[in-house]
Amino acid sequence: MVGPANRHDAKLLAETIEAVVVERPAREEVEQHLCLDKGYDNPSGKTAAAEADYVAHIRPIGDEADTTRRHPDAKPRRWVVERTIGWLNKCRALLVRYNKYARNYLGLIQLACCLLWYRRLRQLNGEPVLG
C-alpha cells in the first residue's frame, strides 16, 4: 500500500491492514492484537482496528512510557519497521522517489524487499553476499 507522504498514518490504517499479505489465523483460534502508538489514539484508528477484528493496544495521548528495562544489561532494540525502512533507504530509487506512478514505486519496493531476502538467505547458507 502506497500513500502520499503528506497524509497521516492513522488515516491509512484500514488500507494498510487490508494490504497485509500474511495469512492470519482464525479469530476463534488465536486472539489478534495490534499495538499502536499515540498517533492512532483517535476514533478512526480505533474503528479501523475493531473492524479488522484486532484487539487494539493504543497508548493514550499524554501517557508516558515506562523507561525502566527489565534487564539492566539489555540493549535497546530498534523497531522492525524502522530497521526495514533503513535497509530500503539504501536503495537510491526508494530514498528519493523519482517515479510518478504509485504502482511503479510499489514495484521497486517489492523488488528491493526480494533483494534483501535473497541476500539474507545467502548469508544464512554461508555463501558470500554480493552487492
- Stretches where pLDDT is under 50 for at least 5 consecutive residues are none
* SS content category: mainly alpha
- In N-to-C order, the SSE pattern is HEHEHHH
User: What is the gyration radius calculated from CA atoms?
Assistant: 18 Å
Largest sheet: 2 strands, parallel
Widest sheet: strand ordering: 1-2
Would you kindly provide a written description of the structure presented here, covering whatever features stand out?
The protein has 131 residues and is mainly α. The chain folds into two domains: 64 residues, no CATH class; 56 residues. 39% of the residues lie in helices and 6% in strands. The chain has a two-stranded parallel sheet with strand order 1-2. Helix 2 links the parallel strand 1 and strand 2.
How do the strands and helices of this protein lay out in sequence?
Blueprint: H1 13-18, E1 33-36, H2 43-51, E2 55-58, H3 80-88, H4 92-95, H5 102-124
Parallel strand pairs: 1-2
Give a summary of the structure in a few sentences:
By secondary structure, this protein is mainly α. Helices cover 39% and strands 6% of the residues. It folds into two domains: 1-64, no CATH class; 76-131.
